[in-house]
Design goal:
Length: about 100
């Protein structure tokens, strides 16, 4: 389960904290045709800022693939990856401090 803003996780919730985000974020600066990720629910930011698109929440549900409606990146679920990993590596978005 992913907690929304304002919600408090309980002991039964599985919350993946990553760079201050409750949901993993991925980017596609290199223009990969497909990115494998270890999460069914995540955010796509397109490219790194300032060239990002609106950060869109994607949920694969029971599927193993999802296409971002903004940048057309194909995301594939890979259960061997952690939520904070991608193949090719380097597609995890980490915001920089101001």
């Amino acid at each position: 389960m992913v907690c929304n803003l304002g919600e408090t996780p309980t002991d039964n919730d599985q919350v993946t904290a990553m760079a201050g985000h409750a949901v993993p974020h991925f980017h596609n600066d290199a223009g990969h045709r497909a990115i494998s990720v270890g999460a069914h629910e995540f955010m796509c930011v397109g490219a790194n800022p300032p060239f990002d698109h609106p950060h869109v929440y994607l949920d694969m549900g029971g599927d193993s693939e999802k296409v971002c409606p903004y940048c057309s990146t194909l995301y594939r679920y890979d259960p061997s990856l952690k939520a904070t990993e991608s193949v090719p590596p380097g597609c995890v978005y980490t915001p920089r401090a101001a």
